[in-house]
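Final report, closing paragraph on structural work. Over the funding period we assembled a curated collection of sequence-structure pairs, and we close with a single example.
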Amino acid sequence: MTATVSLSEVAEPASALSLRDVQHTFAANKVVKGIDLDIAQGEVVCLLGPSGCGKTTLLRIAAGLEVVQEGTVSLEGQAIAAPGKRHVPPEKRNVGLAFQDSALFPHLSVLENVTFGLKHLPSSQRRERALELLTQLGMADYADTYPHMLSGGQQQRV
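Its predicted structure, as stored:
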């Protein structure tokens, strides 16, 4: 006996990132209005729009840098943010952002900038972990370099 399954009966895999009815207001200005978005694993998405329309705010909400005021954010089918219910902190989401303008400390070397973000590790492990990360990004040769000596793309990788 052979079982037949129609395509409509096959469950679709959970989106890598899903936003449902996400809304966000600054003062009286609603900048994100009822956004629904599903992004599949490996999918590349580009958000386009005029200044002030909420693109960066939406990304900050997804990454956990802004708290969800209305709606739900899910990663791989698991709700990670909903008002008054759940808020997984940014460092636990495995969501990364590369901002157009770098946010590096100009007085610190590349290595020092990376170790600054590793405060959760014991100090004895920070340098080693930072060098591992820089190696993964192809930036190990720039460990002792200062941000102003890097290209824009290199600064974003750091």
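Confidence is low (pLDDT under 50) at residues 5-11. The beta strands are 17-26, 29-39, 70-75, 78-82, 86-87. We thank the funder for supporting this effort.
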